[in-house]
Design a protein that fits this description.
The protein is built from eleven helices and ten strands. It is α/β, with parallel strands linked by helices and 280 residues long.
Length: 280
């Protein structure tokens, strides 16, 4: 399905809101909040503070992780009647580690427009100010809550050479760093708290160096963790085994073959051919 952001059709607008400093909101976000018929929001009390600050009066409809499945039907019916709808979360960009995915997916499936505005998000400023290589990176978001699941997730990421980005809550940060030290080893890490707020702070060092100080820190955290840069001798592996290594980590076959070709210094077509010949 082709979609134009400017075709005049009823649309759902995904509107980023400031993660701290209210000056971070964009002019386009303010204009969009003004023109939509109503706004879906994570917490009506928090969103009212934002709208009141900018003197915007709009109907607010609660839309959070516990009612998204129910609210999506209401959204579809309102779009069908020609309404334009805004969707915001308490802070940052909708959908990314915040509500919005269930509703936006339903809107797309019913062939209405979903228009995402660029704007505030926590992990980009954390990444660019970390001092750790910015690309390639893998944004992971929040880890699971149970110890066994956290360790399993970290194990699946431990071999990747990419910079890893996580969100973490203050009551879990110390334990999470302990699990990372156990699974990843003593990698370089940058811990960012309260981005764009009054008490914004960045702590840089190794995981081992920063564990003793995190218990003193408060706020929401973004963790930027260096990737695995250990040199691996791939000559002892067959191409089939090498590709399977990345498939087991959750990569697509296409990306696994591309990665193996880069690491072996040969053309992708050669790896593709040899992999499929030996896969049978």
């Amino acid at each position: 399905m082709r979609q134009s952001s400017y075709d005049g059709s009823a649309s759902l607008y995904l509107i980023p809101t400031p993660i701290g400093n209210l000056d971070d909101i964009t002019v386009r976000a303010l204009k969009t909040l003004e023109i939509v018929d109503f706004i879906l929001c994570e917490d009506t009390r928090e969103s009212s503070k934002l709208l009141n600050h900018f003197h915007i009066k709009k109907k607010l409809v609660s839309c959070h992780e516990y009612n998204e499945d129910k609210i999506k039907e209401y959204v579809i019916s309102e779009l069908a009647s020609g309404k334009n709808i805004g969707l915001i979360t308490d802070q940052g960009s909708p959908v990314v580690s915040d509500p919005g995915y269930v509703v936006s997916k339903a809107v797309i499936e019913h062939h209405f427009n979903v228009i995402a505005l660029p704007g505030a998000t926590a992990f980009v400023p954390a990444l660019t100010s970390s001092g750790i290589s910015p690309s390639p990176f893998l944004f992971y978001g929040f880890l699971q809550t149970k110890e066994s699941k956290i360790k399993a997730e970290l194990m699946s990421l431990s071999k990747l050479p990419y910079t890893l980005i996580f969100y973490e809550a203050p009551h879990r940060i110390e334990k999470t760093l302990g699990y990372m030290l156990e699974v990843f080893g003593n990698r370089n890490i940058s811990i960012h708290r309260e981005i764009s707020k009054l008490h914004e702070e960045i702590c840089r060092g190794t995981i081992q160096e920063l564990i003793p100080i995190v218990s003193e820190l408060r706020g929401e955290f973004v963790l930027i963790v260096d990737g695995n840069h250990e040199k691996i001798d791939y000559s002892s592996m067959s191409v089939l085994e090498h590709v399977q290594l990345y498939l087991d980590d959750g990569m697509s076959e296409k990306d696994a073959i591309k990665t193996v070709a880069r690491e072996r210094g040969v053309a992708k077509s050669i790896i593709y051919k040899e992999y499929h010949e030996n896969k049978k």
